[in-house]
Structure formats: structure tokens, C-alpha cells
Design a protein that fits this description.
Blueprint: H1 2-29, H2 39-42, E1 50-58, E2 70-71, E3 80-86, E4 91-96, E5 114-120, E6 131-132, E7 136-137, E8 144-148, E9 161-166, E10 172-173, E11 175-177
Parallel strand pairs: 2-10
Antiparallel strand pairs: 1-3, 1-11, 3-4, 4-8, 5-6, 5-7, 5-9, 9-11
Length: 181
């Protein structure tokens, strides 16, 4: 009898855990399609499941080269930045306060007037981007937004990295997916 009671308790605990997990998952997803929380509306509706969501980190001159792309020649700072890539080809990237804090730029993007972004997959020896966005303007405060609804999303992308390029220069990056404390 005690064994049967322990089995019932274990099944009950498992059922409760599954119910909690399902509730959290449903609440996080919002049911898709830009439903009740406005998240889908903010990102232009449901264009597929997100395959990559990341914050962005500003590049430093001592950062490594990724996929043959070197960090910018000056240190950058970033107040806030994020990127989201959806399975059906929507890339959305935002930066706020992406600037060079030292002279001669002194808190501006300096000579950088546009940014673009590239997705790289797999081994670092692969120097070919899966896709690169068109360049968009960056403000003197370092604010920019990239929206690309026709971004190429490969079927497999192991170890994905997003690099943000200055002035269409795909050989350098000034921000990268990840974070910096």
C-alpha cells in the first residue's frame, strides 16, 4: 500500500510539473501571431519561429577575428543592442548608443554613417556569410534599426554569430552577437 501511495505521489508531482511547464511555455510564446502581449506586433507580426535571439556586444580592438572579419580599429561602446532572426527570413537588429567614446569621435559613431549585419555559421574557418543585410543609416547618437524580411536562413546553422559592419565594410565588425559586462 505504501508503495502504491508513493507511486501516486510521484505521478502527481510529474503531472504538476508538466502543467507548470506548459503554462510557462504558452505564456512565453503568446500563442504566436502577435497576440495578446504585443510582442509579435512590435516585430511586424509572426514571420516564423525565432531561430536566434541575442543581445549585442560592442567590439574592442583586442577582440578576436570571427570568420575572417576583424574588429573595428577603435573601441566601441553600446548602451543597448539586440538581434532576432526568424526561420522564415526576418532579421531585426537594433542598436542604441553604438559609439566610439574616445577622440576623435568623442561619443559619436565618428566616420561611420551606416551599418549592415551578416550571419555566419559553423566553423570559424568558413569566411562566407550566409547573408548580409543592406546598409542602413546610423544616427549621430549611435542609434540604428535593421529590418530585413528576405534574409537567407540556412536549414542548419551551428554556432551562429551576427556581425555588425561599419559603412558596408564586411571585413570589419563594430558589434557582435553576445554580451559584455
Amino acid at each position: 500500500m505504501a508503495r502504491y501511495l508513493r507511486l501516486l505521489v510521484a505521478v502527481g508531482v510529474m503531472a504538476a510539473a508538466v502543467a507548470v511547464y506548459a503554462g510557462v511555455a504558452a505564456g512565453h510564446d503568446g500563442g504566436g501571431g502577435g497576440g495578446g502581449d504585443g510582442h509579435g506586433d512590435r516585430h511586424g507580426g509572426d514571420r516564423g519561429k525565432a531561430v536566434l535571439e541575442s543581445s549585442l556586444a560592442p567590439s574592442q580592438t583586442t577582440d578576436p577575428t570571427f570568420h575572417g572579419v576583424a574588429p573595428g580599429g577603435l573601441p566601441w561602446v553600446l548602451n543597448r543592442g539586440d538581434v532576432e532572426l526568424k526561420r522564415k527570413g526576418r532579421l531585426e537588429l537594433r542598436v542604441r548608443g553604438l559609439v566610439i567614446p574616445v577622440a576623435p569621435a568623442n561619443g559619436t559613431p565618428g566616420p561611420v554613417t551606416t551599418i549592415s549585419a551578416s550571419l555566419y555559421c559553423g566553423a570559424d574557418s568558413d569566411s562566407t556569410a550566409a547573408d548580409t543585410t543592406q546598409a542602413v543609416p546610423i544616427s549621430t547618437n549611435g542609434n540604428a534599426r535593421i529590418r530585413d524580411d528576405s534574409f537567407t536562413v540556412p536549414a542548419t546553422c551551428l554556432a551562429p554569430v551576427i556581425l555588425v559592419h561599419p559603412n558596408g565594410d564586411a571585413t570589419h565588425y563594430i558589434a557582435v552577437s553576445g554580451w559584455r559586462s
